[in-house]
């Protein structure tokens, strides 16, 4: 499934990433701290 980073809360995204174990927490940190840059990117989960 694909989600725009701006459509998910930090907690929702963190839970999905931990469950899928496909993206590091460092990547999560970068997404949540660069919302303007990442708003147009699609995040594969």
Give a quick set of tags describing it:
45 residues; alpha+beta; two-stranded antiparallel sheet; 13% strand; globular
**Intertermini distance:** 6 Å
> What is the spatial order of strands in the main beta sheet?
1-2
Q: What best-fitting shape do the alpha-carbon axes yield?
A: globular
Low-confidence stretches: 36-41
**Oligomerization category of the chains in this entry:** single chain
* Number of discrete domains: 1
Biggest β-sheet, characterized? 2 strands, antiparallel
User: H/E series, N to C?
Assistant: EHHHE
How many E-type strands?
A: 2
Average predicted confidence as pLDDT: 53
- Strand fraction equals 5-15%
| Category from helices, strands and their pairing | alpha+beta
Radius of gyration: 9 Å
Percent range of helical residues = 40-55%
Question: What is the count of DSSP helices, taking H or I runs of 4+ residues?
Answer: 3
Q: How would you describe the overall organization of this protein?
A:
This protein is α+β, with helices and mostly antiparallel strands and 45 residues long. The chain has one domain. Helices cover 51% and strands 13% of the residues. It is built from three helices and two strands; from the N terminus they run E-H-H-H-E. The chain has a two-stranded antiparallel sheet. It is globular and about 25 Å long. About 13% of the residues have low confidence.
């Amino acid at each position: 499934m694909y989600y725009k980073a701006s459509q998910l809360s930090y907690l929702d995204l963190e839970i999905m990433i931990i469950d899928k174990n496909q993206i590091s927490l460092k990547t999560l940190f970068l997404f949540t701290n660069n919302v303007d840059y990442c708003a147009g990117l699609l995040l594969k989960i």
